[in-house]
Amino acid sequence: FLFSYYYYDPSSNASLDGTLIFNEDGSIIFNEPNFQGVYASYPNSNFHTVIENTENGTKMMLQGNGIINIYNLPGSLPCTNLCADSLTTGMKILNPEKSMSNSILAYPNPTIDYINIDYTLPQGIDKGEIVFYDFQGQEIRRYRVDRTFDHLRISTNDFPSGAYLFNLQTSQGISDGKKFIKIE
């Protein structure tokens, strides 16, 4: 999990900023004081990001003290609303007004042997896919969904223990990525 911060203390006329990346267990695996994420806007959207999939791998950009550092990251981002038009899948990014962020929910979470995925297809859309990724960004499963049901129950017995990301993909766009944890 990436956390980029900025704090200005008017009483001392000083600021504190930096970027941290936390592991799943809460330990800090990256700490870059005085450098914050570089945010880029895409045409026709209010979308901002620090990490991008590129033709040359996944990159993270941080800036501070008039310098921009670019870091190579392992793996790739699973395609959530963090994927820009045609950068990864060519699917359209949702504008905030059309967000599908509340369109998908997983429980129980964490889970041992099954996960329920409740989903809501956007108005006017009759089918979509729920796509699962491991934390290296590799797609591991894809399930077709339609308006026949509003939920999917999936056995997690063949998922190794760990954290997984998933999203709902339709012709209208891609929902925010959600996470679930499989435990033994």
SSE succession? EEEEEEEEEEEEEEE
**What's the average pLDDT?**
75
Instruction: Provide the helix percentage.
Output: under 10%
First-last Cα distance: 23 Å
Helix segment tally: 0
- The number of strands is 15
Structural class: mainly beta
Main beta-sheet annotation: 5 strands, antiparallel
Low-confidence stretches: 40-48, 80-99
Shape: elongated
Q: Roughly how many Å is the radius of gyration?
A: 18 Å
Percent in strands: over 45%
Outline of the structure:
By secondary structure, the protein is mostly beta strands. The protein has strands at residues 2-9, 14-22, 28-33, 36-37, 51-54, 57-64, 67-73, 104-107, 114-119, 127-134, 139-146, 151-155, 162-170, 173-174, 178-182. It is elongated and about 60 Å long.
